[in-house]
Structures are given as C-alpha cells and as structure tokens.
Write a structure and sequence with these properties.
about 400 residues; mainly alpha; Receptor-associated Protein; 3 domains; three-stranded antiparallel beta sheet; 16 helices; about 75% helix; about 5% strand
Length: about 400
C-alpha cells in the first residue's frame, strides 16, 4: 500500500512524498529512516471506478486485461508481468509489484488482493478466493466483469436520464436570469420616460429587474453562498445516512430505489453462489452492497438462514422480496437452481427499473420544458404588456 506523507526536514521545511509500505507504521519508519519527521500520513487510493484518468484504471479493466492474458495461455504470474511491463503509472506499478512479489513467495492470490482493501472490494476478493478451490480463475474474472457490466448498465441509464433535464434547468435558469438582470432594466428605463401607468404585474417585474441590476454582485454572492451551504448540508447528510438512503426518502424515488437495491442484491448473491461460495458467506458479502437499512435486514435474514430457515422465508420475513421474486425463490429451492432463479429475478427487476426510467423521462422532460417555457414566456409577455396598453391608448 502507498501512503502520501507530509514530513518536516531537519531544515524545518515541509516535504511531500509517497512511500510504499505494508501499513502506516512501516511508512512512518521509512520516513524517519530518511531523517524526516512525518506530520501526516494518508493511504493513496489507487483504483477508481471511472477509467478515464491518467495512471488509474478500474478493477473491471484490470480484470478484463488479466482475463485476456489468461485466456491466451499465460499463467497468472506471466499475465501480471505483462501488465507490469506495459504500465507506466507509478501507483499501479506498485500494486502489480506487490501482487507479483507475493505470488513468487507462494502466497494465495486472494490473500494478496484482500491485503489491499482500498483497491479490491470484498466482493472481488470473495469470487477470486472461491475460484482458487476449483482452479478456474478466468471464469471468476469473467463472472465479475459480467456482473459489473449489469450493474453499470442500470447506473448509466439513470445518469443518462438525468443529463437532459439538468441541461434544461441550467439553460432555462440562465435565460431567465439574463432576462431579469439585463433585459428588464432596459425596458424599465424606456417605460419610465413615457409617464404612462404600467400594469401591476409588469411593474412588479420591472422593479425586480431594477433591483437585480442595482445589486447584482450581492445577489450573486448570496446565491453562491446558498448553493455552498446547501451542498455542505447535502454532503453532511450523505456522510451520515448515505446517498442511497437519502434518495430513498424521496416519495417518488423510494419504491424504485428499493427495487434497484433488490436487483443488485439478487445479482450479487446469484454470482457468489454460482462461484461456489457458501450461502452464509455469500449473504454476508452481498449485504455490503446494500444501504444501511437493508443491510440490517440482510443480517437478520442471514441469522435466520443459519438457524435453519429457508432463504425464501427469511427474505420474506425481512421484506427483501416482491411477490414475483418470492415465487421464483421457492421454485429455485425446490429445483435446486437457486443461482438461476436469483439471476432471473435480478433481470426482472432490471427490466422494471428500465421501464420506469423510460416512462419517467417521457413524462418529466415535456413537463420541465413546459415549465421553463411558461416562465420565460411570462417574463416576455409582462415586458410587452405596457407597449400593448400604450398602443391601445394611442388608437
């Protein structure tokens, strides 16, 4: 593991460096051996889920590359050596070197992965550990890649559905702000010279426009402060209860977020069981992918299964099923095809979520466009109403 270190030199200068050590104590010892006094040590997070940044790749991309090399006939050591020769990033090279060093010492690959929890999640370690019993690492890697692709498909669809409304809100808000802060004050200057009484709503709009033009900077700073405070409050709430839990409290999103969580649970559990992991260990690992509230239910369901209860009955008691998935679980228990039933249940949930996203976007986007059009149109009409009144009086 790598650590970012800030240390004080004998010349009383602050020095920033990165050291490679097994734990924080080892990193501190390395720094002190150089005659420096460490003031701050923090582990470096090397892999991210996004795979577009320089020197960093996702675990999925790492698995895909290693899988391709293994399928080509290379051993795992040769595959990691090939990845190391190609890699130019210092952080990833450090990870690969530690994996290679451990394998050459005779350590198990899963133990080496679990020694870097900031890089490889427990789910990934679990399926690799299960594959070591069957000597089928390529299938385990392929299973994880397929699993992550299913998860990312739903997530990407949610993100794509949110992009267009976000653009509409930004553009609509920008046009409205431009009209009020720039166009309305100029119309107000023209109408003031006529001496003609203005409609009440037009007068209110013009007064707001003049106020915005006269106090533009304080209003901008105030709006920026409101955004910052709201962002900090949202971040504190996310840190305290989690982003998924926060979204789950939204009336329209709560039930569908529960379906998404159930889909992820069933897909994860099916993949782990298919990889040969025992049911209790699979349930404990799958529980780590859920929100805190559903994780507590999963823990109770796991305890019920340990006491001899069936999986379907335990899930039903903890409200971790829907009527359709409950029947599919019972069929899987009778037929012995629990992995297939879990995977099919997850696919059914994914289809339900996709249909809801499509319906929601078809309904929400026109409504949002209509609302923005009404706001902008109202501003324009109120600006021109005095001109219409003046034309009528002249005629």
């Amino acid at each position: 593991m790598q650590y970012e270190v800030k240390a004080l030199s004998p010349e009383n200068e602050i020095i920033a460096l990165v050291v490679d050590a097994q734990d924080e104590a080892g990193a501190r010892a390395q720094v002190e051996a150089q005659g420096l006094y460490p003031t701050r040590l923090a582990p470096v997070r090397t892999f991210r889920r996004a795979s577009g940044s320089h020197g960093r790749i996702s675990v999925v991309l790492f698995s895909q590359e290693l899988l391709a090399l293994l399928m080509a006939g290379l051993s795992i050591v040769e595959g990691l050596e090939a990845l190391l020769e190609r890699e130019g990033g210092a952080r990833l090279r450090g990870i690969l070197e530690r994996l290679l060093g451990g394998l050459r010492e005779g350590k198990r690959f899963s133990n080496l992965l679990s020694g870097q929890p900031d890089v490889f999640p427990p789910l990934y370690v679990g399926i690799v550990r299960a594959s070591e019993g069957t000597s089928d690492l390529p299938r385990a890697l392929q299973r994880y890649v397929d699993y992550q692709a299913r998860i990312d498909m739903v997530r990407n669809k949610l993100v794509s559905a949110a992009i267009y409304p976000s653009i509409l809100l930004v553009v609509g808000g920008g046009v409205s702000a431009f009209l009020i802060a720039f166009v309305v004050p100029r119309f107000a200057a023209v109408y003031e010279g006529t001496g003609h009484p203005l409609p009440w709503m037009s007068q209110v709009l013009l007064d707001w426009g003049k106020f915005a033009a006269a106090h533009g900077l304080p209003l901008f700073v105030g709006a920026l402060c409101v955004v910052i405070v709201a962002g900090m409050a949202a971040r504190a709430a996310i840190t305290k209860i989690g982003f998924a839990t926060l979204l789950g409290r939204v009336p329209l999103l709560g039930p569908h977020l529960r379906i998404y969580q159930l889909s992820r649970l069933y897909l994860t559990l099916g993949m782990l069981l298919d990889g040969g992991i025992p049911i209790i260990a699979a349930m404990e690992t799958a529980g780590g992918t859920l929100t805190p509230a559903m994780r507590e239910r999963m823990i109770r369901a796991c305890a019920a299964v340990q006491s001899g209860q069936s999986l379907s009955a335990a899930f039903q008691a903890q409200e971790l099923t829907t009527p359709i998935s409950l029947r599919m679980l019972r069929v899987g228990e009778r037929s012995g095809e629990m992995c297939a039933m879990l995977t099919q249940s997850a696919a059914f949930y994914d289809g339900e979520i996709s249909r809801w996203i499509d319906r929601f976007t078809r309904m929400f986007e026109p409504l949002l466009m209509s609302a923005i059009g009404i706001v902008v149109g109202t501003i324009v009409v109120l600006l021109y109403m005095p001109i219409f009144d003046l034309a009528e009086s002249l005629s």
